[in-house]
Amino acid sequence: MGRARTIARRTFLIGSAALLGGVAFGVYKVKTPYPNPLEDGLADGSATFNPWVLIDSEKVTLITPHADKGQGVASAQAALIAEELDIEFGQFEISFGAPAKAYYNTGMADEGVPFMASDESRMAETVRGLAGSAMKLVAMQMTGGSTTMPDSFDKLREAGAVARETLKAAAAQQSGVPVGQLKTARGAVILPDGSEIAYTALAATAAGIAPVTGVALRDPSAWRLIGKPMQRLDMVAKSTGTLGYGLDIRHEGMLFATIRRNPQKGGAMLSYNAAAAEGMAGVKKIVPLADGVAVVADNTWRAFQAADAITFDWGPAPYPPEQAAHWEAIAASFTEDRLDKTWRDDGDTGAALAAGTPFSAEYRAPYVAHQPLEPLNATILVTDERVDIWCGHQTISMIEGAVAAITGHDTSQVHFHNHFIGGSFGHWLELGFVEQAAEVANQMRGVPIKLTYSREEDFAQDFPRQPGIARGQGIVKDGHVEAVDLQIAMPSVLGSQMGRLGISIPGPDSQISAGAWNNPYALPNYRMRAYRVPELAPVSSWRSVGASANGFFFDSFLDELIHEAGADPMAERIRLMQHEVSRKVLEAVAEMSSWGGALAPGKGRGVAFVESFGVPVAEVVEVTDTEEGIRIDKVWVAADVGTVVDPVNFENLVQGGVIFGLGHAMNCEITYAGGAAEQVNFYDAEGMRFHQCPEIVVRGLENGHKVRGIGEPPVPPAAPALANAIFAATGQRLREMPFNKFVDFA
Amino acid sequence: MRLTVNGTSHEVDVEADMPLLWVLRDELGLTGTKYGCGVASCGACTVHIDGVAVLSCQTAVGDVGAGAVTTIEGLGTPDALHAVQAAWIAHQVAQCGYCQSGQIMQAASLLAENPSPSDAEIDEAMDGNLCRCGTYPRIRAAVQTAARSLQGA
């Protein structure tokens, strides 16, 4: 990847204050481990070897600090520890643990450095290492960016290995048998005579031993769990209605609250009239907030009813009230002064375009809502002595401080208890709903308050995916793609989202280009320029973030050029692909789908490839043009995550990601009128329903050198693969999402 | 008024127009039934009345009368699974799981009515149950497995 190195040198500017801070702090601080939070108040006879393993005489508890919003990481984290600890599913409990610096996410660094994931040069790895050190100093405990596996894969196996060897040392001390003659299996140390000492019976002894460190990790050939089908730990509870989500929390004396805030997000509340609500059944208190009103009642429905009875006079939003003006602002941003960064400039694209007659096309991606099925909610009890917060959340390390700032407690008095989350797609990264619950609970000290958003309020207050426009110009020559010039304009999602967290990110926003600049094709001429649109409506990370739109832009335009060149869509992509791991993904999906075979009349196939979060993914979509509209018949997917930890969960997440990508590309957008989102419930924006769901065949490849996450990467190729398939079947190019504005779907 | 849920009779003191969903969740503490949309748009609140799937967010509690309400907690338990729940676990259907109580109640109602549905019949019966994570392929497979299991029983 010599070209990528050149690009990186030219653009060597880390848009991260965190990294600069890291360099200034120096090596000592980077190498010093954070304290183990499990040592706080550790009971006599209990042993903890590191922040992830806790054993007492009764049970083994594994801490799985990454938030689980359906992607199965509670199980996966436990499996990584259990792999080296030699303990089986069913022999341990899991806990999300308390927020702690020890659980900082090392995996967030890669997305912040200006190197393609396929670039494993020394320069790229050095900068990733520096960024990783910076992440440690910031000590952000956060789940997102498909980072749980990259963050955890080595760390948690090491945690299991250290615990195992320390337990063996304890067994040696207890039994008098030398450590070298001891084995471990099924949660016990096994003595040479075959007798076993359960780990729980070793806790008291182990508590007095310094953890054995420097333990080598096992060779992959010895893995019992990793790579083999697992039974996720949450399946029984999720199939019997017994899993406690945040919304299911109940406490003695708890009251139920809901909220109405200005649907013109960021606008003021000029006045309100709650007279009708105050006398309604079950209403306990009306709580005015800065930009809205909360109702506290003895039942959620009664709170909803009372909130509906309040009338408001809202101030305007700080963004244009009508959708058309949003598009105009984006379209007007392809200017030199709004150029955020030229992310790639291979060959001489300007000269190549001038030498021929360029083919041009323009694409659009709309605002899209997150809307996981569990509505935003948080339960908080404030007393003079302490604050307890029960809900699911991904931005774990910032919650206690944010709530302390509202209640006036010291952060050490505030305790966050994380929960399984009913879906997220980026929605549960925001702090607002927790802060609002804290404001209400702070005004009702001593009473646990559960704040629940109605679905309509959740839609109204959602910070959707950033919209964007892409303009492509290209040249084809001698049956091949010769030059691609892609410009993308969109508001900065990092600026909007991090701004709400009080974090300023200087430098270019990588999400304006992610999914478009970083594809490892070796085009003779390729220029990719990103333009930052001044902030419009507030936006937030939406599953796969920039790549969810930019993958559609780049791959759709590439497909159009390949068609213009008269080449085969699969063969030309493979020919252009210079990164071996990515090329094998394309070759796999070609083989799986028997690409090139004859198709029945009315059928068409499209292929797309997008790399995001370091994961190359290729998808083939097959559609039929029926009398009822376009029907998606089948999808084939190949993705390379380096190591597939659990093939069952992997398949489920890939299928879900494809459905998420297809469903929103087909059916969903958020538009603004009068400053408010026009879509108010699922009947306006439902993603995909059963009858539109195709068969989806999945293959996980393991040629990559690094372990990657699969939560987001299946999303970006779905939209372009579908658009390309519809073109193949009908001759109609779809350049704007959602596609149902232009075609019917069966 | 009196309300029979999972074989137990309860006295509840609520307005007759309160949706059954909120009586179950907030008054009786049966939180397995989920709130998703409140407007018959997602199916997360699906329960049975006399064995037939209904949307509890659209059912006024005053209209339940003597009907026997069954929620996910009453369909089966971790120690005594209903065949549909067992199939859901075997196929590892859930991702976030939040819609699955409703999916399972809808599927159990379907199979009580149609013991061997085709994929098309499954899609039609389940179309009102939204899954934002996209577990539909596994739901299809699990319903077929449950159908075979129930017929073999």
CATH architecture tag of the largest domain in chain A = 2-Layer Sandwich
Beta-strand residue fraction of chain A = 15-25%
Number of domains of chain A: 3
Oligomer: heterodimer
- Evaluate the radius of gyration of chain B: 15 Å
CATH class of the largest domain in chain B: Alpha Beta
Structural class assignment of chain A: alpha+beta
Widest β-sheet, arrangement of strands of chain A = 10-11-8-18-15-16-17
| Highest-level CATH class of the largest domain in chain A | Alpha Beta
Overall tally of domains of chain B? 2
The helix count of chain A comes to 21
User: How would you describe the shape of chain A?
Assistant: globular
Terminal CA distance of chain A reads 44 Å
Radius of gyration of chain A: 27 Å
Number of strands of chain A: 27
User: What summary fits the major beta sheet of chain A?
Assistant: 7 strands, mixed
Spell out the CATH superfamily of the largest domain in chain B. Answer: Beta-grasp domain
Domain Aldehyde oxidase/xanthine dehydrogenase a/b hammerhead (chain A): 240-318
InterPro entries (chain A): Ald_Oxase/Xan_DH_a/b, AldOxase/xan_DH_MoCoBD1, AldOxase/xan_DH_MoCoBD2, AldOxase/xan_DH_Mopterin-bd_sf, N-heterocyclic_Hydroxylase, OxRdtase_Mopterin-bd_su_IorB
Organism (chain A): Sinisalibacter aestuarii
Protein name (chain A): Aldehyde dehydrogenase
Structural notes for this entry:
- The complex is a heterodimer of chains A (746) and B (153).
- Chain A is of the alpha+beta class.
- The two termini of chain A are 44 Å apart.
- The relative contact order of chain A is 0.11.
- Chain B folds into two domains: 2-73, Beta-grasp domain (Ubiquitin-like (UB roll), Roll); 83-152, [2Fe-2S]-binding domain (DNA polymerase, domain 1, Orthogonal Bundle), CATH 1.10.150.
- Chain B has six helices and five strands, in the order ββαβββααααα.
- Chain B has helices at 20-27, 72-75, 83-90, 100-113, 119-126, 136-152; strands at 2-5, 8-11, 46-49, 52-55, 68-70.
- Chain B has a five-stranded mixed beta sheet.
- In chain B, α3 (83-90) packs across α6 (136-152).
- The radius of gyration of chain B is 15 Å and the shape is globular.
- The chains are: A alpha+beta (746), B alpha+beta (153).
